[in-house]
Amino acid sequence: MSEMEDKTRTPRQDRSIKTKEAIVQAAMRLFSEKGYHQTNTKQIAAAAGVSTGSFYSYFIDKRAVFIDVLKNYSEALLARIEAYMSEINIQSPDKYALLSHLVDSLILSHEVYTGFHKELSIMYLSDGGIKELMDAQYEVGRVLTLQYLQMGKDELKITDLEAAAFLVFESISAIVDVIAFSSHRIGTDRIKSELVSMLVGYLYI
């Protein structure tokens, strides 16, 4: 741990916790609007309503606050997905409707963070530490997908659940990202319909 890292503090009082949260929220807004490389610590501090010195009492640099923003983003996204998943009846005989609801839920969850997602894509390719954190979060998604399949395994025609969970997660993630974050020539409803039909045909008897 460096000398600078030794000087940062972990907030324990309500006021300090709120100050750190304000810095993280301000950073996410600026990263989403201006981009990571076009944002500096002075701008983040000003947007959070704190001094630059106060910023450095919580974070050693801009990258450190980006990591906290990434963690908050991942936790919020996971909470949204879990909330939507709790509405799903895994035993429903209408598997098309079941998976349609899942895909719609994921799209809605992702669309909240459009601006920040673009910066994540850039940082994933340019920063090994960020890539490692994001890869770990993707693995959480794959594990959740596996758990989802295991709950309804008696109705599945596939036998290798772990490999199937990987394929399903990657397929849905790729298409949801395209729908939520990119322009596309084919209508969203058509893309979703074909994705769901593909998954139903692959998974279910």
Automatic annotation (TrEMBL):
Residues 17-77 form the HTH tetR-type domain. The keyword rRNA-binding does not apply. Keywords: DNA-binding. SUPFAM superfamilies: Homeodomain-like. Residues 40-59 bind DNA. Gene3D superfamilies: Homeodomain-like (1.10.10.60), Tetracycline Repressor, domain 2 (1.10.357.10). It comes from the Bacteria. InterPro entries: Homeodomain-like_sf, HTH-type_TetR-like_transc_reg, HTH_TetR, TetR_C_15. This is TetR family transcriptional regulator. It comes from Paenibacillus borealis.
